[in-house]
Amino acid sequence: MKRFGLLILAGVGSALAAGFLVQGNLSEAWDKSSLEIRASAGVTKLWFGLPARSGMTVVAKPDSGATVTVKMNLSGTIDLRAPGVYAIEMTRDSGEGQWTCKDVTGNPVLLGFGSTVDEQRHARMSYRADDDKETWRFKWPKDVTFLVRLLNASGKVMEEQDLWDSDRIELVGGGSFTLEVAPTDGSGEFSASKSE
Fold this sequence. Notes:
Blueprint: E1 3-5, H1 10-15, E2 20-26, E3 32-39, E4 44-49, E5 55-62, E6 68-72, E7 76-80, E8 84-94, E9 97-105, E10 109-117, E11 123-129, E12 133-139, E13 145-151, E14 157-162, E15 168-172, E16 175-185, E17 188-194
């Protein structure tokens, strides 16, 4: 199994003091993405950035309690008021372009993310790891070739792994890192989850 050594990324570290930033795409062909987070006590706020002239529906299902559903036509914040694990699904209503989601307050823990990508579209996760070693496991259609790239603060590829070689990526050393997921052949939906 190939290991990624974590790099302390100066620009990413300061921008992500709260924890994570996930980026995906809205398009007519690829209309869904997902996140899984663990929220602690108190209100957790997630900021969703949308492209101009676009809309999405965000559904946050907690492991117990009421589901939060918000239709968004502008960038804005969604409040998660109960502690627990939330499965969050973002569905495109209109428009095209890149969306972002980041934690604003509440320090939620990112447990997983997923999206559909093709050779013109990628998904990206910037993330601050608390543990010295984390393992992320990927699932994807077996007829697609996916690459996971580790990027530095300027966006340069520092490491690259073909998921055919291993469906797990080990991140060693703690700190901040950015992963980009992109297919080199075909298209489809992937998911990544942090091993607990």
